[in-house]
Design a protein that fits this description.
Length: 58
């Protein structure tokens, strides 16, 4: 579930829109906030992915 989401975020089209709108970690955190009430484990996965992305990119 998380891998396809990250692949979509890292696709060329998503990267172009990401540069215009928000960073990948910000999008992951927004999704985590949105899903926190319904699926806390998925929200935690998204937060970990955002932190991991920051560790790789920066």
């Amino acid at each position: 579930m998380l891998i396809p989401f990250i692949q979509r975020l890292l696709s060329p089209a998503a990267q172009a829109s990401t540069r215009r709108n928000a960073s990948v970690p910000a999008q992951l955190m927004e999704c985590a906030d949105a899903s926190a009430g319904q699926d806390p484990r998925h929200a935690a996965e998204l937060r970990r992915a955002a932190i991991a992305y920051l560790g790789v990119v920066h």
